[in-house]
Amino acid sequence: MSKAIYIAASHSNSGKSIVTLGLMRLLLGKTTKVGYLKPIITVAKNKKDFHIETIISHFDLDIDYHDAFVFTGKEVIAKRNQGKIGDVIDTIIKQYKKMESKYDFVLVEGTDFEGDATSVEAELNVNIAKNLGIPVLIISKASKESVDNTIENTKLIYDTFRNGDVEVLSVIVNKVSKDNLIKTEKRLLEIVPKSVVTCAVPFSNKLSNPTVAEIVRELDAEVMFGVSGLNNPISAYGVGAMQLRNHLEHYVEDYLVVTPGDRADIILGSLQANSSKNYPKVAGILLTGGLKPEATILRLIDGLSDIVPILSVQTGTFETATNVANVQAQIYSENTDKILASLRIFNKYVPTEELTNKLIKFETKGMTPKMFQYNMVDRAQKHKKRVVLPEGNDPRVLEAAAMLATLNIVDVTLLGDVEELKIKAEKIGVAINFDKIKIINPSTSEYLEDFVNTFYELRKHKGINIDMARDTMTDVSYFGTMMVHKGLVDGMVSGAVNTTQHTIRPALQFIKTKPGVSVVSSVFFMCMENRVSVFGDCAINPDPTAEQLAEIAISSADSAANFGIEPRVAMLSYSSGSSGKGAQVDKVRTATEIVKAKRPDLKIEGPIQYDAAVDPGVAKSKMPDSEVAGKATVLIFPDLNTGNNTYKAIQRETGALAIGPMLQGLNKPVNDLSRGCTVDDIFNTVIITAIQAQEL
């Protein structure tokens, strides 16, 4: 039974990061705790390995940076020269075993084929994997010459591991030209057994091209202007030494201009070209020789509304151009676009289900937060839905929309003026592909008159006239809700700016509740350290009756089941069992009996105290015969005061992630946000909304 996988590359710059990121995300969705170890790094100990930082930071792993590696390349070479390579392996095994004892699965990443240990790396990777006793996933870099060369190189690295008695679970050929994808996949099947998972991944310009931030990092450049554009990709670069009219002929999309700092004509011409519809986008401008534009030119640049990053270096133009050519694209923790692009490519081209069956040979109990979040994203991606975000001008909404569009999880619609949204995105430094997001301005929309007439017909019995209907329909909450009602989108998420009532009122007016449901309620998915619990109702109903409480419990149990959580319902009170007396306890007791009568299939206990519901030790003492006590997954609070304070207390004191509130009982999904919500809150709530829409 394997508890780890070793990721080994065939060459430098093989694209190992794509697989490491994709596998980590896959594993975190299937196992409780995943460890990460990169035994040998290529940087000095006084510097940090960017890839370790990226993995730990992006996936929020509970791993100290210094525990994630063992040796630097220089240290390995020194040990080898002293005849102490055995000490290297022993130390790596010790660190791996320490991590293995702490985690359910450990992802071990092999060497980078860069720096000091290059000459011994192939042998070293085999030696480490063999001594750790774990299988390997091989990443082979496609040859630019031919598919035959690619297959020969891949067969060589495969045989190297097999001859070293290391089991190979998967072989992935990366950076394949799209014309050779099918041919490469067919040829792979000829050189490895059928039991080995194989695939070919195409070359990606987005991942292979460096960003302006990487130029800053590698060339130690000073950023003079355009900090918000540092993640701009660079597809090509050129030296601005000729006259401007000739230099402009060389521009291509995402072009980096390298020019002496005193060439004001090239600098201003490049900025103007970037703003012109007749020229490609400029990624940035790199000023050489330690020269900077004169004060008048700097003041002119500072007053422009559209400024690309302008950098300055001390080196001369020729040396600078050479340095730029030597910068290899990397994935850094702050470059979310590249990370999300890597995950998308991995999910699209790697047979994840087949690979999972190879990797995971054990089952875990319950639903962990990482598993819950992974499963949510996975479900949303498999059956894409359309979600409208009415508060398009809010910076958090824009950033969440950018993430959702990049991951291609849902089809996002933002309400607002497209030019205003573009300016806002530029101002806050959010890179949004507006081609992937639909923008609608309610006041000028082609849907407005139809929406006005529909609202008038639905509400005229309440005294609404046509002018009132028109005024109402320019409100983004009403417009977004009408889009849901009309089927133009599948769900809505709002409340980052507007109040809960402002979000829910339109839904109650014309989306209305499901048949048999009399009360709209809410749940939070509380992602704690080792479990996910469903809390209801913590946002909507101040003091529900026994009948309403029963309905909330049934809706919450169904919501839990819909999201892969086995519902074991605890009806919370200040008393457990039959001992307590009083109106509040009686209400909970009555609600429990109503649920049992309506849904005998549900496991439910009530009244029960919180500690008896979640703590097996307390449950054994207070309610030893209960099938819910000590292992409740759905916790129903008797009133809003108790529920809202409890979820916030747990969230603040334990660091639990509270996803929601998710509204229950409406015919179509409309969900509310807190005005203090984060970008992640919006992101998660949109995914929940998309999953709710799948059930309609």
Automatic annotation (TrEMBL):
UniProt-annotated location(s): Cytoplasm
MF (Gene Ontology): phosphate acetyltransferase activity
GO biological process: acetyl-CoA biosynthetic process
Source taxon at top rank: Bacteria
Domain notes: The N-terminal region seems to be important for proper quaternary structure. The C-terminal region contains the substrate-binding site.
Catalytic reaction list: acetyl-CoA + phosphate = acetyl phosphate + CoA
Start and end residues of each DRTGG domain: 214-325
Pathway recorded for this protein: Metabolic intermediate biosynthesis; acetyl-CoA biosynthesis; acetyl-CoA from acetate: step 2/2
Stretches assigned to the Phosphate acetyl/butaryl transferase domain: 371-690
Gene Ontology annotations for the cellular component aspect, listed alphabetically: cytoplasm
Name assigned to this protein: Phosphate acetyltransferase
Family, similarity comment: In the N-terminal section; belongs to the CobB/CobQ family. In the C-terminal section; belongs to the phosphate acetyltransferase and butyryltransferase family.
NCBIfam families listed in its UniProt record: PRK05632.1, PRK09653.1, pta
E.C. code: 2.3.1.8
Catalytic EC class: transferase
InterPro entries: DRTGG, P-Actrans_bac, P-loop_NTPase, P_AcTrfase, P_AcTrfase_dom1, P_AcTrfase_dom2, Phos_Acetyltrans/Butyryltrans, PTA_PTB
Role noted for this protein: Involved in acetate metabolism.
Keywords carried by this UniProt record: Acyltransferase, Cytoplasm, Transferase
Subunit comment: Homohexamer.
